[in-house]
């Protein structure tokens, strides 16, 4: 929820086995999709049935979702910014893959992305999506000065704790929230390991660990 009351959902996978029993199914004003993997596209077809909910995704996912009957989907591409509902949303690079799994084939999902959301009061939130470590995170830091960064730490499919700590050193956010860990056994990265590396590589960044369903206000 932004200062002006705009409710945003990023990667609506409500079927996540770690999600709380009581799920917030909206309505949402904006749904951001970082990439097309099932654990990120998630329940978007149920969540965004109303035209009052604007879905924002890369062009290829936009075309897919429009074809599935969603009424209000805005397509963008990496590097661009889009102003909507008092916010500025910038789609930024992520180093990952992106595809839509159907019964017996895989559909190209465009490039994976992250988002910088500039709030009404000028503060910025960066959600990295699924990504590996890359040096241009420092560009995102220089250009957008994120107050809060949400970074994956789970390892195997995304950055691990050590890489995520280096990402903090490049991005220089005020606060970091780790994500994308603990869901499957393969995601071995832990907040404890992340805290240790963060202390070494970016001790000035405040670590805020959230439990499923927990909320935090900035
Ligand atoms: Ni993914």
The percentage of residues in β strands lies in 15-25%
Tally the helices. Answer: 6
Strand order of the largest sheet: 5-6-9-10-11-12-13
| Ligand inventory | nickel (II) ion
Supply the key terms.
218 residues; alpha/beta; seven-stranded mixed beta sheet; 6 helices; globular; binds nickel (II) ion
Question: Gist?
Answer:
This protein has 6 helices and 13 strands. With 218 residues, the chain is of the alpha/beta class. α4 runs parallel beside α5 and α5 (161-171) packs across α6 (191-201).
Folded structure, characterized:
The chain is of the alpha/beta class and 218 residues long. The chain contains six helices and 13 strands. It has helices spanning 38-41, 44-47, 59-67, 137-144, 161-171, 191-201; strands at 8-10, 30-32, 54-58, 73-76, 81-84, 87-93, 99-101, 106-108, 113-118, 124-127, 148-152, 175-179, 206-207. The protein has a seven-stranded mixed beta sheet, with helices on one face. Strand 9 and strand 10 (124-127) form a beta hairpin. Helix 4 (137-144) runs parallel beside helix 5. The protein starts with 7 loop residues before the first strand and ends in an 11-residue tail after the last strand. The mean pLDDT is 96. It binds nickel (II) ion. Nickel (II) ion is lined by residues 35, 37, 40, 96, 130.
List the helices and strands and how they pair.
Layout: E1 8-10, E2 30-32, H1 38-41, H2 44-47, E3 54-58, H3 59-67, E4 73-76, E5 81-84, E6 87-93, E7 99-101, E8 106-108, E9 113-118, E10 124-127, H4 137-144, E11 148-152, H5 161-171, E12 175-179, H6 191-201, E13 206-207
This protein binds nickel (II) ion.
């Amino acid at each position: 929820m932004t200062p002006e009351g705009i409710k945003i959902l990023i990667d609506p996978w409500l079927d996540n086995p770690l999600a709380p029993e009581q799920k917030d199914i909206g309505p949402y004003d904006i749904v951001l999709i970082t990439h097309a993997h099932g654990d990120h596209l998630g329940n978007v077809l149920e969540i965004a049935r109303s035209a009052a909910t604007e879905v924002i995704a890369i062009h290829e996912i936009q075309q897919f979702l429009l074809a599935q009957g969603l009424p209000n989907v805005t397509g963008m591409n990496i590097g661009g910014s889009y102003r909507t509902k008092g916010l500025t949303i910038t789609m930024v690079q992520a180093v990952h893959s992106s595809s839509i799994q159907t019964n017996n084939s895989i559909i190209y999902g465009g490039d994976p992305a992250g988002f910088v959301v500039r709030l009404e009061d000028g503060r910025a939130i960066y959600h990295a999506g699924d990504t590996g470590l890359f040096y241009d995170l420092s560009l995102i830091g220089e250009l957008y000065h994120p107050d809060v960064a949400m970074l994956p730490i789970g390892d195997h499919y995304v950055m691990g704790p050590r890489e995520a700590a280096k990402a903090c050193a490049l991005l220089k956010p005020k606060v970091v929230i780790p994500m994308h860990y603990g869901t499957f056994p393969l995601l071995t990265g832990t907040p404890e390991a992340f805290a240790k590396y963060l202390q070494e590589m970016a001790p000035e960044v405040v670590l805020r660990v959230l439990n499923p369903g927990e909320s935090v206000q900035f």
